[in-house]
Amino acid sequence: MTEFVLMRHAETIWNRQKKIQGTKDSPLTPFGEEMAIGWGKELKKKENQAGRFSSILSSDLGRAVKTARLVNSCLDIPLMMDIGLREMDWGEWTGKVYKEIRKASPEAVKKQVHLCWQFRPPGGESRIDLLQRSLDALESASEKFSFAEKERILVVTHEGVIRTLINYFFNRSFMWNEPDIMEPWNLHSFFYDHEETAFKLKQVNMLKLSLPPAGDQYCAKKGVK
């Protein structure tokens, strides 16, 4: 049995600017670096209560890797990376502010939003594509530990990946008016059962991560892509 605990990367410059990052990158802000270091300390303190992580699996994008390394400065465990855990490819919308896209191309945005799982930005990938490569990456990671009775892996990835996985586990349609069940800055967990070769959800919003004191309220209220 392999347990995966999902963590979203810390705040970046483009998050502050509300730009869509997709598979492009932007460095963590100083506040974001503080966030990641604080999360590492928090997880270290909770090892006796929640259990120790055996390794970290990160998206290969810089913002996720930087977050993972800062967290790991406290945990000191093996760190692996997988391209399959990248954020969704937003194609032509990458680097743009979503509100500006809606203003410039309202019909195109409306059409895509109503496609639900088939949502695909121009020149980008669909949520179905994102789901499949994410599951493939996690299944591949679990196979490396199939000999172990139980492994616990911290997965540092992106909002799109986490949201897609959770919607999959809850059999949700990705309709624009569905209530959001993900709370900001929480960890979420699920298992991969080696005998049944199936993923099973354990808990959404299992642990709310602390944020450093800061005057800027962006991170306290919003998620990041």
From TrEMBL:
The active site is at H9, E87. InterPro entries: His_Pase_superF_clade-1 (IPR013078), His_PPase_superfam (IPR029033), PGM_Phosphatase (IPR050275). Pfam families: His_Phos_1. It comes from the Bacteria. Substrate binds at R8, H9, A10, E11, T12, I13, W14, N15, R63. GO terms for molecular function: phosphatase activity. CDD domains: HP_PGM_like (cd07067). This is Phosphoglycerate mutase. It comes from Desulfamplus magnetovallimortis. GO terms for cellular component: cytoplasm. Coiled coil: none annotated.
